[in-house]
Design a protein that fits this description.
The protein has about 110 residues and is α+β, with helices and mostly antiparallel strands. Helix content is about 20%, strand content about 30%. It has one helix and five strands; from the N terminus they run βββββα.
Length: about 110
Protein backbone atom coordinates (compact mmCIF):
# COMPACT_ATOMS: atom_id res chain seq x y z
CA UNK A 1 0.00 0.00 0.00
CA UNK A 2 1.40 3.44 -0.95
CA UNK A 3 1.96 5.98 1.79
CA UNK A 4 0.15 9.31 1.50
CA UNK A 5 2.75 11.00 3.71
CA UNK A 6 4.49 13.94 2.03
CA UNK A 7 8.05 14.76 3.02
CA UNK A 8 9.62 18.04 2.02
CA UNK A 9 13.24 17.95 0.90
CA UNK A 10 14.63 21.45 1.46
CA UNK A 11 17.74 22.79 -0.25
CA UNK A 12 19.48 25.82 1.26
CA UNK A 13 21.57 27.70 -1.30
CA UNK A 14 25.12 28.23 -0.01
CA UNK A 15 24.81 32.02 -0.28
CA UNK A 16 22.01 31.88 2.35
CA UNK A 17 23.75 29.54 4.84
CA UNK A 18 24.94 32.32 7.14
CA UNK A 19 21.53 33.99 7.28
CA UNK A 20 20.73 37.68 7.59
CA UNK A 21 21.15 39.48 10.93
CA UNK A 22 17.97 41.21 12.15
CA UNK A 23 17.28 43.16 15.33
CA UNK A 24 13.52 42.60 15.34
CA UNK A 25 10.60 41.46 13.23
CA UNK A 26 7.31 43.07 12.29
CA UNK A 27 4.30 40.91 11.44
CA UNK A 28 1.29 42.07 9.45
CA UNK A 29 -1.27 40.50 7.14
CA UNK A 30 -3.36 40.89 4.02
CA UNK A 31 -6.46 38.90 3.17
CA UNK A 32 -4.31 36.20 1.54
CA UNK A 33 -1.01 36.14 3.42
CA UNK A 34 0.91 36.91 6.59
CA UNK A 35 4.04 38.99 6.13
CA UNK A 36 7.12 38.86 8.34
CA UNK A 37 9.50 41.80 7.89
CA UNK A 38 12.89 41.20 9.50
CA UNK A 39 14.47 44.54 10.33
CA UNK A 40 18.04 45.63 11.14
CA UNK A 41 18.98 48.93 12.76
CA UNK A 42 21.11 51.15 10.51
CA UNK A 43 22.46 53.38 13.28
CA UNK A 44 21.84 54.23 16.94
CA UNK A 45 18.64 56.07 17.89
CA UNK A 46 18.73 59.85 17.63
CA UNK A 47 16.43 62.52 19.03
CA UNK A 48 13.34 62.98 16.84
CA UNK A 49 13.23 66.32 15.07
CA UNK A 50 10.22 68.11 13.59
CA UNK A 51 11.10 68.52 9.89
CA UNK A 52 9.27 71.86 9.62
CA UNK A 53 10.70 73.61 12.68
CA UNK A 54 13.89 71.69 13.41
CA UNK A 55 12.82 71.40 17.05
CA UNK A 56 13.28 68.18 18.99
CA UNK A 57 9.94 66.45 19.59
CA UNK A 58 10.95 64.54 22.73
CA UNK A 59 10.98 61.10 21.12
CA UNK A 60 13.77 59.19 19.47
CA UNK A 61 14.09 57.70 16.01
CA UNK A 62 16.16 54.67 15.05
CA UNK A 63 16.82 54.36 11.33
CA UNK A 64 16.22 50.76 10.25
CA UNK A 65 15.87 48.71 7.08
CA UNK A 66 13.90 45.60 6.16
CA UNK A 67 16.58 43.01 5.42
CA UNK A 68 14.16 40.23 4.51
CA UNK A 69 10.42 40.00 3.84
CA UNK A 70 8.73 36.61 4.02
CA UNK A 71 5.11 36.00 2.93
CA UNK A 72 3.33 32.85 4.07
CA UNK A 73 -0.24 31.61 3.60
CA UNK A 74 -2.54 31.93 6.64
CA UNK A 75 -2.69 28.13 7.04
CA UNK A 76 1.09 28.04 7.57
CA UNK A 77 0.99 30.55 10.44
CA UNK A 78 -0.20 27.86 12.87
CA UNK A 79 2.71 25.58 11.93
CA UNK A 80 5.15 28.47 12.29
CA UNK A 81 3.77 29.40 15.72
CA UNK A 82 4.04 25.77 16.85
CA UNK A 83 7.60 25.45 15.56
CA UNK A 84 8.67 28.72 17.23
CA UNK A 85 7.17 27.58 20.55
CA UNK A 86 8.94 24.20 20.32
CA UNK A 87 12.27 25.82 19.52
CA UNK A 88 11.89 28.43 22.28
CA UNK A 89 11.08 25.70 24.81
CA UNK A 90 14.17 23.73 23.70
CA UNK A 91 16.35 26.85 23.90
CA UNK A 92 15.12 27.60 27.43
CA UNK A 93 15.85 24.01 28.52
CA UNK A 94 19.32 24.04 26.94
CA UNK A 95 20.41 27.44 28.25
CA UNK A 96 18.52 27.58 31.56
CA UNK A 97 17.34 31.04 30.50
CA UNK A 98 13.91 32.41 29.82
CA UNK A 99 13.08 34.48 26.74
CA UNK A 100 12.26 37.41 29.06
CA UNK A 101 15.92 37.51 30.12
CA UNK A 102 15.46 35.85 33.50
CA UNK A 103 17.42 32.83 34.61
CA UNK A 104 21.14 32.05 34.61
CA UNK A 105 23.39 33.75 32.11
CA UNK A 106 25.96 31.78 30.14
Amino acid sequence: MASSELKLQVDLPSEHETGVPADFASVWHTSTSFVLDFVAAKSPAKPAVDQATGAQTGGRVMPARVVSRVRIPPQQVFELARALTQQLDAWERETGRKADGSGPKA
